[in-house]
Design brief:
By secondary structure, the protein is mostly helical. 53% of the residues lie in helices and 4% in strands. Helix 5 runs antiparallel to helix 10 and helix 8 packs antiparallel against helix 13.
Length: 407
């Protein structure tokens, strides 16, 4: 791990890896304002990573070299977390130990619970989760230790406790007592148990598990990048994850699944799909759950697996209404706009059928993504460089200061 924090006035490295000097020392080199600008860092490669490959042209996604389809069809969420953290899939014994360690960390301390229950019920779940993560750092005696083993222990606590925090803060808002985690259940099944107070069916548990697995990691998305920026200052992992939560809360990043479900509920029936979509497009409104910043020429590879799991869950319940509605919307939008559904679109009805309230949809995204966030934080620590991009100044210049009585 390196800690080469850089002063603002020294040598900077651009996202393209070309070392240039700042304006005060550029010796006649092109000024910052003369360089191409990539708004929102679109298309800019800023680092190397061994964690995840997102190929928007081919429409593929892999974790540590394993295609997402292989993992979705054969792995569990716990296996995937292990793969992200350690770089290899676990043996049977290693997975058993790893899963037991996760289960042992699910309970939250009384101090954290007192903080959560002191919050007004009007506080949103993502704000409560962000507050709880900040508070968790206060009880960590090794908060300043950034070695790999220490950070895996911290990440284990965070992954294990996220579902407990979210489920029981929900109960607090409903005026209900908390439900303790069940260490005999898988990570996904335990979350549904804590939310509903009963063990889920095997199909429901598998659906929740796959949803979490598919959302566990996705490269340098906004919240992951934000976490890495914080980690690059050599701040602690709790601070980095708090940053990620705050970023995911923004509606342009984490709110699409909730708004996609609201759209489906507004449409209601399959025969209303075409007029609803046509009217929305005529008003130049975005159809939530379609298109992707990266997957522009190919479908999001995660959506097909969620669609399949949605079908199975509907079949178990003998009611295909949501599956047929979602399919009709997807076919209509593709025909009229050439856009494919992304991971949020089919995740929305799946979470809804699992009994997850709409105001918890983004928090469930956080529960799913914490393995990826923590993996990126650890990778950032391992070969750190302070993230310090440049900006092109476009404001007024050469202004003269006038005393207050002359203004």
């Amino acid at each position: 791990m390196s800690g080469n924090a850089e002063a603002d006035g020294g040598v900077e490295t651009t996202a393209r890896g070309i070392e240039t000097q700042t304006a005060s020392e550029n010796g006649g080199a092109p000024s910052v304002n003369a360089r191409p600008i990539a708004e929102g860092l679109a298309g800019v490669v800023i680092a190397q990573s061994e964690i995840c490959e997102v190929n928007g042209e081919r429409g593929t996604l892999s974790y540590r070299g394993y295609d997402i389809g292989e993992l979705a069809c054969h792995a569990t969420f716990e296996e995937t977390v292990y793969l992200l953290w350690y770089g290899e899939l676990p043996t049977e014994n290693a997975l058993r130990t790893f899963s037991a360690n996760l289960a042992a960390e699910r309970e939250i301390e009384e101090t954290i619970w007192r903080i959560l229950t002191a919050l007004p019920c009007s506080v949103e779940p993502m704000d409560a989760l962000r507050t709880a993560v900040s508070a968790l750092s206060c009880s960590d005696a090794d908060d300043g230790d950034r070695c790999l083993n220490s950070n895996i222990e911290k990440a284990t606590r965070l992954v294990a406790k996220f579902p407990t925090i979210v489920a029981n803060y929900y109960h607090h808002r409903q005026g209900e007592p908390p439900i303790h985690p069940d260490p005999t259940l898988s990570h996904a099944a335990n979350f549904l148990h804590m939310l509903h107070g009963e063990h889920p069916t095997d199909m429901a548990a598998r659906a929740m598990d796959m949803t979490m697995l598919l959302m566990a990691e996705h490269g340098f998305n906004a919240s992951t990048f934000a976490a890495r920026v914080t980690a690059a200052t050599l701040s602690d992992i709790y601070s980095a994850i708090t940053t990620a939560i705050g970023t995911l809360k923004g509606p342009l990043h984490g709110g699409a699944n909730r708004r996609a479900m609201k759209m489906m509920l507004d449409i209601g029936d399959v025969d209303q799909v075409v007029p609803y979509i046509e009217e929305a497009l005529a008003r130049k409104e975005r159809i939530m759950g379609f298109g992707h910043r990266v997957y522009k020429s190919a479908p999001d590879p995660r959506s097909a697996y969620l669609r399949g799991r949605l079908y199975e869950l509907c079949a178990e319940r003998g009611d295909f209404h949501l599956y047929e509605l979602a399919t009709a919307i997807a076919e209509t939008v593709e025909a009229k706009k050439g856009l494919y559904p992304n991971v949020d679109f089919y995740a929305a009805p799946l979470l809804y059928l699992l009994g997850i309230p709409l105001d918890l949809f983004v928090a469930v995204f956080a529960i799913s993504r914490i393995p990826g966030w923590s993996t990126h934080v650890m990778e950032q620590y391992a070969r750190n460089r302070l993230i310090r991009p440049l900006s092109a100044y476009v404001g007024p210049k050469d202004r003269t200061y006038h005393p207050r009585h002359e203004r």
